[in-house]
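re the bet — no i am not wrong, look at it urself. input seq straight from the record:
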Amino acid sequence: MVNELLKKRIGAAFIDLVTVGALCILVHMPWKILPFPAIISSMLSIMTLLFFGAIILLKDAPYRFEGMGVVLEHQSPGKKAMRIAVTKSDGVNSIDVTASITRNLILALPYFWSAFIVFFHALPLPFPQLRWILISSFALIGFFGMIGILGFEIYNMYKDPDGLRMGDKKAGTRVVEL
């Protein structure tokens, strides 16, 4: 049972992260294409990344969305597609905003880390080579760090008898099939 639920959870996360990532890119593109001054472009990029990071944080929060023939109630689009939902550890009660933020913080980190890198890129540094080295280092640390953290989360879900990842344990939540 846990293995089937694990597959659904990974599928739901993939749907959610690709959807939000694609929307972030679509919103972000004008800031890089249009002839804005560099500082304005950087600030708009930072705000875009922070906004979509917040979307990831709140994707399981208690809300109800009806539109385009779809009803999302306490479910992200990925969870709706995979027919799963997040509940409190008791398996019955829906989660609150704090629990959603706690359980999704790891998934939102790439957006916040990217905003940090864009902010750092906007800072005037005396040596352009130093900026390039630091930004490249931060980007590599972020990339490999997130691969490691997400791998660790999947490993935790696989090894835990209840299929819980670290975010579930911290937030006191679990994912159930509908």
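see?? The chain has a mean pLDDT of 87. told u. also The longest helix spans residues 2-33. so pay up
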